[in-house]
Specification:
Largest sheet: 6 strands, parallel
Shape: globular
Number of helices: 24
Number of strands: 25
Strand order of the largest sheet: 5-4-6-7-3-8
Radius of gyration: 27 Å
Strand content: 15-25%
Distance between the termini: 58 Å
Structural class: alpha/beta
Length: 631
């Protein structure tokens, strides 16, 4: 097809439709867009592109809220509205509030009316209703509405988690000897304001997360402000009050060696950081050392204390047998150099090790497999033999059927069935193929969502030198695909931290419950918020130029199908049944160790090997271990 400039108007939009609409036999067919059971023939090709979702439109967010209002009210709408404000950059958010504010606060109205005996508002007084409620609330505390602006702002409540004394005492008594020694060393540093740095080293099952939460609760009970963060969204959900390190410390996405975090010393957030006594940072083994070093400089500056991390006691945790920081186009030296082990901070860190595997004490029959995992994680031997007790399958179809035996049967799979099973593969390309195959086996109508792709103009304001079709064919790391196919009942994974406090982190798994043109309804199936219904709008992704060598934007739903995921993405999760696709061998440090350690029993692991390996009794596969990174 001939190239058409974006300045060509309707011709350009016609070309966009021709490259995305299948089965059209006429121009009217190209302008026909189906939304549910309704078919609309639009007057122009541009309107059809907007309705199809492949062209940006200022009214998209209003239609998103409009669809959500039909399905839910109250709590879910408030969460959606917060996501729209924080992630979608609405040009006129006040107009959205004026139109949908009453729906967003619908359940609050009923609760407040019963609490304060407030009569039902009439339509002509609806705009004043929120102020009336606020006035009533303020009067309960002896304040008046006219003095509201001069009232002191509430302090940030991070770290102020309610601690139940009886539960804390029980947890302290459950600590084993190693955990109790570690507990005493860290708590003493916090209470004495020593500002020491620790690294908690331990493999899966040694109780690191349990120990983190016990120490954090103990320090909070004593009135100390504690920040619990993790390098990944999934790991942060396991910590009391946990959030990702990037969101907590405002770390730049593309952090550099000399990057500074832009938090003013006079801001309210800086006042919080001045009072912090203790920081827990989990999964640092997979985080770039520049992140820790940037936070070190930040706390030194804000707290006016030249000690490391401004005198705050810091506990870093992880397992260097697992995957390391991902560095684009990097070799072994660059990957090792990005680790905290290569940072100047490491020389001042006290290493504490947990060796007693609490999980295996409850499952002694898996002790042999645990020893095998330690060998996989520490022995630099390039080729290893996998246990014959592991199951084997012949092809992708058999692999999907073995881990999801109910897929394709009548009725949707339960959330328990989905959360205890996963397929792992080293490469994104193979994960995409597996997910498409599994989605095809699921009964029901498929919904296709196309993204809006466009180039970001350079500093001189020059237009794109790439066609839209070229951008559509790109699959930037960490971004959703241009063409997203999903079905009601399929599991999906979030690709962005939308609302960490609400359990919506990068890596959170959900099940799709309803699909609309501008919003997707889903149910959380992992973490403390499991079972809650949320709405997902389209947001804008900007892949790093270092990944693609071009600057582009993609506006798409921040999810992808999650019957399968990459090995790196699975770090920090444990499931009951695991299928591992090793047709393409692992290619980086710790991948095989992470894949095998997602499950505690070899008999519940199924392998898909290259064709020439399926006939072998002792299955051989590649392993990558960097001994210089291990403790």
């Amino acid at each position: 097809m001939y190239f058409v400039s974006p300045n060509a108007g309707e011709l350009y939009y016609l070309r966009m439709l021709l490259t995305n609409v299948r089965g059209a036999h006429s121009f009217d067919g190209l302008r026909t867009v189906t939304n549910g059971e309704a078919c609309t023939v639009h007057d122009t090709f541009k309107e059809a592109c907007i309705a199809l979702g492949i062209l940006a439109n200022d009214g998209e967010l209003e239609k998103c809220l409009q669809e959500a209002v039909v399905m839910q009210t109250g709590n879910q709408l408030r969460k959606l509205f917060c996501i729209i404000l924080s992630e979608c950059n609405p040009t006129k958010p006040e107009l959205l509030w004026e139109k949908y504010g009453m729906n967003i606060c619908d359940d609050l109205q009923h609760r407040l009316r019963s609490m304060f005996n407030i009569p039902n508002p009439t339509d002509e007084h609806a705009m004043d209703y929120g102020l009336y409620i606020l006035d009533q609330l303020l009067r309960q505390s002896g304040k008046k509405l006219e003095n509201y602006k001069s009232m002191p702002r509430p302090r940030h409540d991070w770290g102020q988690i309610v601690v139940r004394e009886s539960v804390l005492n029980t947890d302290i008594e459950r600590l084993n000897v190693e955990q109790r020694t570690t507990y005493n060393s860290i708590v003493d540093s916090v209470n004495n304001r020593d500002g020491r740095m620790f690294f908690l080293n331990g493999s899966a099952g040694t109780g690191k997360t349990f120990l983190y939460n016990t120490i954090a609760r103990s320090c909070r009970r004593d009135g100390n402000i504690v920040l619990t963060v993790a390098s990944s969204g999934i790991a942060s959900l396991l910590l009391d009050g946990g959030r990702t390190a990037h969101s907590t410390f405002k770390i730049p996405f593309n952090v550099q060696e000399d990057s500074n975090i832009g938090i003013s010393k006079d801001s309210e957030y800086a006042q919080l950081l001045k009072e912090v006594r203790f920081v827990i940072w989990d999964e640092v083994s997979m985080q770039h050392r520049f992140c820790m070093e940037a936070v070190d400089r930040l706390l030194r500056d804000i707290r006016s204390d030249d000690r490391h991390f401004g005198g705050v006691t810091v506990v870093l945790g992880g397992d260097f047998r697992q995957t390391l920081p991902v560095v684009s186009n990097a070799g072994r030296e660059q990957t090792v150099g990005a680790s905290i082990r290569s940072s100047f901070l490491w020389d001042y860190i006290n290493v504490l090790t947990l060796n007693q595997n609490m999980r295996l004490e409850q499952q002694p029959e898996n002790l042999g497999f645990a020893n095998f995992l330690l060998e996989i994680g520490t022995n630099p031997k390039e080729v290893v033999n996998l246990p014959s007790t592991m199951n084997k399958c012949q092809n992708m179809h058999e692999m999907i059927s073995s881990v999801y035996p109910l897929l394709g049967k009548d009725g949707p799979m339960s959330t328990e069935h989905l959360t205890e099973r996963i397929i792992l593969s080293p490469r994104n390309e193979d994960v995409h193929k597996i997910n498409l195959e599994a989605l095809g086996n699921l009964q029901g109508e498929a919904y296709t969502y196309l993204a809006v792709d466009k180039m970001i103009r350079d500093d001189h304001g020059r237009d794109s030198r790439f066609t839209t079709e070229f951008l559509n064919n790109l699959n930037p790391p960490g971004s959703p695909p241009f063409k997203l196919d999903i079905k009601v009942g399929c599991p999906v994974m979030l690709l962005r931290n939308l609302a960490p406090k609400e359990g919506l982190c990068n890596g959170t798994r959900l099940v799709v419950t309803r699909c609309r043109r501008y919003v997707i309804e889903a149910k959380i199936i992992t973490g403390e918020k499991a079972g809650e219904i949320i709405f997902i709008p389209r947001i804008t992704f900007q892949p790093s130029p270092s990944e693609l060598d071009i600057q582009m934007e993609r506006r798409q739903f921040p999810i992808h199908v999650a019957y399968a995921m990459t090995i790196n993405k699975s770090q920090g999760q444990s499931v009951k049944y695991v299928d591992i696709d090793l047709c393409t061998p692992v290619f980086s440090h710790g991948q095989l160790y992470v894949a095998l350690s997602r499950c505690t029993a070899a008999r519940r692991i199924t392998l898909l090997m290259p064709n020439e390996s399926n006939e072998c009794f002792n299955l051989e596969t590649k392993n990558v271990v960097y001994p210089e990174i291990l403790l």
